[in-house]
Sequence to fold (67 residues):
Amino acid sequence: MKALNWIAWISGGVGLAFVLLGLIQIVIQVRIVAGAEIVNYFHVANSFFLITIALFVFLCRYPLKKE
Fold:
């Protein structure tokens, strides 16, 4: 369960990084990666955020019970 928690936090961080890349690309009006549109960054970030949400819901719904 601890590994899933780490994966969720890392996935959220990667999603945030892609949002920041998209925002930087909007502000400076230059493509950071050739062939990458601004919308693609936000689609990728959305996927990472969905993974994060799903993992946190799973971890909250089924907590590790020590007997």
